[in-house]
Amino acid sequence: MSNYYQNLFRDAYNDQVNILTPRIERFGRAGHYAYELSSGEPPSFNPCSRTYGVTVLQLPPEAFKALYFEGQHYIKRRDLTRCFADRASAERYIKTVRRQPLKLPD
């Protein structure tokens, strides 16, 4: 199933990796959201040993697809995307993503 989410992220970001967190740790789902947990070596100004990123895509509920999404399979949720200094904080954040309100396409 993670290949499905991996393909969504590849499509959404045109196969580009995040320059701050280029190493993919895993893909998953939290409620109506798909997430990518990634990591990377910090830039020289960052005192952390590693940086973790959580990138989020909203998956449309079945009932909304025909009405609002017109063939879209996701919405990029930059407002829910975050960076963390440690993996534990990133993992805790992923658990909170499922409780975020849904957004309709622009």
Q: Please give the radius of gyration in angstroms.
A: 14 Å
Poorly predicted parts: none
Average pLDDT taken over every residue:
83
Quick one: biggest sheet?
Answer: 5 strands, antiparallel
* Helical content band: 25-40%
Structural class: alpha+beta
Order of helices and strands: HEEEHEEH
* Outline: globular
Number of H/I helices: 3
Number of strands: 5
Strand content: 25-35%
Q: What is the terminal-to-terminal distance?
A: 28 Å
Folded structure, characterized:
The protein has 106 residues and is an alpha+beta fold. Helix content is 28%, strand content 27%.
Give the secondary structure arrangement, pairings included.
Layout: H1 2-12, E1 23-30, E2 33-40, E3 51-58, H2 62-69, E4 75-76, E5 82-84, H3 87-97
Antiparallel strand pairs: 1-2, 2-3, 3-4, 3-5
Please name the defining characteristics of this protein.
3 helices, 106 residues, globular, alpha+beta
